[in-house]
Input
Amino acid sequence: MESDTIVDHGEPVRQFSVMLPNRAGALAAMVKLLRSLGIEVIGLSVQDSRDATVARLVLSDPDAAEHLFMEKGIPHTTCELVVIAMRESGPGLLQCLDSLMIAETNIDFAYALMPSPEGQSMLAMHVEDYEFAVAILHQSGFKLMYQEDLSR
Output
């Protein structure tokens, strides 16, 4: 008799994509605004263009950040990320990528997060099917991180 494995997990990590003007100090001003409310940046990826910059942010308090962005009229979008704690950067990364490739699921983008309080490296990935990727990585023995693990 087969049994379906249900992965019990926490709240997915939310990423904010925030549109910033392409000028010196814009990102620093955003981080300063977030810190004024006790919101820390845990992960950051910046995509620059001539006119604007898209900052992808993983934050310690996504609910407070979303409220702040709405209150201040800061354009943003959100999405869910799969985050894994890496045991070893080289072999761990390859094992993760191989597990997802064998399962035939795609990674849309990925970037490293700031080290955890325990000093572990973390990798954030946006995947085509969040629940499927979580199940595959869990079955492959990866330590998955959720929002409550990152909120400090």
